[in-house]
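hey team, just a heads up i'm posting the complex here instead of the shared drive bc the drive is being weird again. everything in one block, sequence lines first with there labels, then the predicted structure for the whole assembly after. its two chains so it's a bit long, scroll down
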Amino acid sequence: MGLVLLVVIWLITLIGSYFIIAKTWWLPVGASAAAAGIDHHFTVSYILMGGVFILAQLALGWFAWKYRDRGAASQVAAHYSHGNTKLEVVWTILTVILFVGLNLASEPIWSSERLHGASPGAVQVEVTAMQFAWYFRYAGPDGKFGATKPELEDASLGGAGALGLDSNDPASKDDVISGIMVVPVNREIEVILRSHDVIHSFFVPAMRFKQDAVPGLAIHMHFTPIQTGDYEIACAELCGLGHYKMHGIVKVVSDQEFSQWLAAREAEKQ
Amino acid sequence: MAGGTGGREAITMVSHDAHAHAAPQGFIRKYIFSLDHKVIGLQYFFLALVAVFTGMFLSLLMRIHLVWPNASIPLLGEIKPETYLSLLTMHGTIMVFFVLTTAPQGGFGNYFLPIQIGAPDMAFPVLNMLSFWTTFLGFVVLVAAFFVTGGAPLHGWTGYAPLSALPSAGPGEGLGADLWIISIAIFCIGALMGALNFITTTLDMRAKGMTLMRMPLTCWAWFITAILGLLAFGVLLSAGILLLMDRNLGTSFFVPLGTVNGVLTGHKGGSPLLWQHLFWFFGHPEVYIAILPAMGLCSQLLSVFSRKPIFGYKAMVYAIMAIGFLGFMVWGHHMFMSSMSPYSAFAFSIMTMGIGVPSAIKTFNWLGTLWRGRIRFSSPMLFAIGFVSLFVVGGISGPFLAQPVLDIYLHETYFVIAHFHLIMGVASIFGIFAATYYWFPKMFGRMMNETLAKTHFWLTFVGAYAIFMPMHYYGMAAGLRRYSQGTEVAWINALAPIQKFISIAAFITIAGQFIFLINLFWSMKKGEKAADNPWEATTLEWTTATPPPHDNFGGVTPVVYTGPYEYSVPGAPKDYVMQTDAPVTAKH
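-- predicted structure starts here --
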């Protein structure tokens, strides 16, 4: 039985680790400035934690076989010992160093992502979530978002109506509202996240970006796309029966294309 | 120094007569409204058994729906996306509350805590009976949510507001959601009564010589779990009441100004994050409420079946305390993406990584207990070894999720599902299985069938890995949880083969659980008669008759002379020294 345990535990460890090492299913190619650092930290964590995982499982399987009861023929009694304080202290200290060290190593990335706000020149996009759609709003030439009012919200109208945009506010006249998120490459994007009803979460795996949209709050976040292309958005917080259908697109284009697109949308409004 | 054999001799002197009560005669007083902690323990055990098969059936329906969404289930028809969400809500709630909290603590804790410390019963037998029937009522109310208009709620077991606070937010958020909250509130009341009873019993009812540091690690685990329960369930109860008020009395604790489908909700000024803080202040300690008893039990079993003292008894006790203590300071790690302050995220992260330290100490000590042992592979031991393996794999994914930088990507993916199912679900369930196989002889006077037990072990052990290991990969590729279908998002759709593999593995593993069920009921009637101490173990439950008499020790009050893990003591006549045996001088 000890041998079977050894074989099964070792096999599980081997197969389980193989798919991680081979990266058979892995993160999509990173398309934001933060991706490289996050991916690197993933790799470091996998090497350290994977090492602990493999060592512990190997030891477990090995001990199960090596120290099996060999029947009445064997005269070797179990070793009478209540432990070893020195060993306990050593592995406690090693674990503290490993866990706290790993955490401290990731601190700079977290700071740049979350402790510091977007720089003043960032492109502002307001992202509004509602059951079960995303809307994206740009402030227009005046650089100011028009006021919105909950009592004006009507999803069936789409666009400005869905957001409850107050047409009496002069700042609202040049606001551009879109069903897809178009952003320029290599520019910092400041996302202002809102939700009308329940909690949603704005998740773009390629950008290594996720943040809940919480009703009642306007949450400021930022990311910098470094590669053009279309990237999928999915809702990552259970929001109701259509949760699985609540997806969208971030379209990363050149700076020039972005300006043209924005100008064209402005022109449509006139 | 012989750990556990020293310590103070002065013990708490309590008149146990105050807690003694005559054995009841009638069927109702004996088996239904019993005051006997052993009968109440069995009641909890069978409630958890019904609950676990219910919860497992719901997961079966979910696994079918994920892979074959158009399949027509006999009697139920096709599962709709919103039904899938109801299934996952009820699966989580049933499993967390009525299985993982109910079986290890209410079931085995109730039955064996008093016996292991040498007491005739729990400190408050009537309170004990009430706590079981309260829990039972909670289960009935929860299951009723399936049968009301709109069906069961779809807001997940975490019940995040405003989704859980607004009847208009989705099907199942009407009466079904009210019943869900009421059920949890009732459960909390039962759990609070139980916690008080466990704490008092441990502190006041120990037999002569049973010092705290001579208690089996199972008793330590039940004791600390009870303290966690006392502190955590009160908070959840309050949160539940506030949520009910938001839903029915027009208050706005959790709901800000907003609309659903363009209609104003009539609320303003509430905070959705407040619910999350209150919920996870309970929710994280709850993880330890589920796992600590399994840790205690598996420590015990590794020692019994390796025929060796536990490696580092004191370190194990302090590790349980440290896990319990730190468990209350880490709830924010569930909220890194919630818009909580990023500074506090950093603090929560450090504390969470800190929990890895006592957890690692425990793992080292389990391996240290096996080291140079003489291991007997009886079925309880197989599940204990399986527990260690699953605890390691479930634990090792924790430090990924505990780091906010990685959680940005992993939060709400299947990586989280893999993590908590392995460590809180499957590892704890392995503890419950180990406890069943280990204590069945004492509870029912017969042995369980070893061949069936071992078949059950291999199917479940390999099955658990086959189900949950691939969920890590699914999560690494950003596969999101709580998605009834992956078809709408390209990158999730590409992962469909993994889901198919998991479903097939789940069907086989679920089928394997019927081997356990058959063995359980067959052995009650037909199993081989058990000796009083079939495993040659040292703790007090093995000193008394099988099954134990009404007052546990047949009118005798046991006296304890030694620690709980004296195996292979050099010079001793047998390879184990009962806790009630007169002390021997051990040489190292």
